[in-house]
Amino acid sequence: GIQVEQSPPDLILQEGANSTLRCNFSDSVNNLQWFHQNPWGQLINLFYIPSGTKQNGRLSATTVATERYSLLYISSSQTTDSGVYFCAVDGNQGGKLIFGQGTELSVKP
Amino acid sequence: DTAVSQTPKYLVTQMGNDKSIKCEQNLGHDTMYWYKQDSKKFLKIMFSYNNKELIINETVPNRFSPKSPDKAHLNLHINSLELGDSAVYFCASSPLTSAANYGYTFGSGTRLTVV
Description:
Chain A is mainly β.
C-alpha cells in the first residue's frame, strides 16, 4: 500500500518565524489533504491539494504530484498554530485516506 | 451549524460493556467513515459507507459494528469493550466525486476510555 512520510516529526518555533513541513508519498494519488489537529483534538481541514499551489492567509501548500511530495508553508507563526499537522492521501481505494505520522508543531510566545 | 457531529464527546466505561457512538453529517455527502486515533496520534481508517452500503472494512474486530440507517448517519457500536479499545474515534464524511474540491470533513472526535 501507499506509504506517507512526514518531516520533521517535531518542530519548535518562536512566534513570528516561518516553517515548511514536508510530506512524501510512495505512489500516485487522487487526493492529498493537509489537516491541523489543534490542542483540543479537533481535526481541521486546511487544504485539499492533489496538485498545484493554494494559499489561505498565512498558510500555503504546494503539491508536486509527479515527484510525490507536498509542502505546507506556515508564515509568521502564531501560538494558535500549535498542534499536529497531518498529511493524508487517497490512493484510489474508495476514498480511504492514508495518514502520515504527523508533525507536532509548538509555537512559543 | 455543525457539519459533522458525533456524540458523545467523552465516553468512560468498564471492560466488557457495550457502547455506541453516533455520527451525523449535514453536508449532503455520499460517503461516511470511522477512523481510530491511537495513543501515538496515528490515524487509521476502520470503515466507510457510501449511501448506506459498506465499502471499506479495514480488518476491524467483529466486536465493532457500524450501522448506517441513511446516508447522513453512521453509528458505531462496540461490544465487549477491551482496554485496547481506548482511543479517539473520529467520524468523517466526503463527497466521493472528484468535482468537489474540499475532500474530507471530520467530526470533533469521541474519546473512549475503557477501565
